[in-house]
Amino acid sequence: MNTLIPWTPFRELDELQNRLGSFFRGFPRWPGNGGTLFVRQTFFAAIVIPFIVIADARADIPFSTVVIDPGHGGWDRGGIPSQIVPEKMMALDTALRLQKILEGAGLRTLMTRTTDVFVPLSVRSAIANAEPDAIFVSIHYNAARQSGAHGIETYSENNRGAVLAARIQRQIVTRVSTENRGIRSAEYYVLRNCRLPAVLVECGFLTNPVEAQLALTPAYREQVAEQIAAGIIEQRQFSFPPLVPNHQGRLVHKTKKHRKVVDSERLVYPCATIPRERAKINAASI
């Protein structure tokens, strides 16, 4: 008479059955005859294993959708008045390239705009907040009165966004040859009003002659998009930390007319200094 030897993985499942308690209490444990054993193994293979695998996969993947936000658009060119290269077109092209790369990697994407149109900041945030299992990535190019300003920097508004910002910034500077301006904390409207992990990437200074020429080349915009995507894909391997009401870093107030950067050792919300600046920030087309 042939003896059916239990398959090793099912010994582990037997231990799982013991831990699960009453739900599986009605099923027989390792029986003395092969028929019942076969039924039990079949049940676990068909029902329990897929459930465990799906549950683990959902726990390991913190998001499945990326809301991509090309900055400015329509009547809002972005940048500063004396700027020659329009930020809105560079941001849109880079964002569309990012969308293609992410979708090729199996991620679902949602664009706040796909053409040269103006989208209010409140609408951009609303689009993002309608996605429960997503992150928000806003694509911009920088500008400054001083043509010597150069480099790439990534902004966030809270600790969850800071985690994503750090991965994206690190991926960009490993391949894009420019100054690493680091990650910063900012009260930008689209970051402050997103209820999901959100970042804003400044992909170089269009007021810098060298970086402006680079931004005009498809190869540069493709490389930046590839590295932003690499940071996003890397983040999928890790869970986001719980949201906390404070974020260490540099608080940046940006408007169309000026940019003021102040050192902030520790920003705790609500903060008495924030409301005075908020009206200016809300008016900025960021």
CATH architecture field of the largest domain: 3-Layer(aba) Sandwich
Give the percentage of residues in beta strands: 15-25%
Helix count from the secondary structure assignment: 9
- Provide the structure class: alpha/beta
- Give the averaged pLDDT, no decimals: 77
CATH fold descriptor of the largest domain? Aminopeptidase
Q: What is the count of structural domains?
A: 2
**Rg:** 25 Å
- Can you list the strand order of the major beta sheet? 2-1-3-6-4-5-7-8
What is the string of helix and strand elements?
HHEHEHEEHEHEHHEEH
Helix content: 40-55%
Structural summary, described in words:
The model is unreliable at 1-14, 19-32, 35-59 and 248-285 (pLDDT under 50). This protein folds into 2 domains: 8-59, no CATH class; 66-268, 3-Layer(aba) Sandwich (Aminopeptidase), CATH 3.40.630. It is globular. α3 crosses α8 (218-235). It has 286 residues and is of the alpha/beta class. The chain is built from 9 helices and 8 strands. It has helices at residues 8-20, 34-60, 87-104, 121-129, 159-175, 189-192, 209-215, 218-235, 274-283, and strands at 65-70, 108-111, 134-142, 152-156, 180-186, 198-205, 246-254, 259-268. The chain has an 8-stranded mixed beta sheet, with helices on both faces. Helices cover 43% and strands 20% of the residues.
Descriptive keywords:
286 residues; 43% helix; Aminopeptidase; single chain; alpha/beta; eight-stranded mixed beta sheet
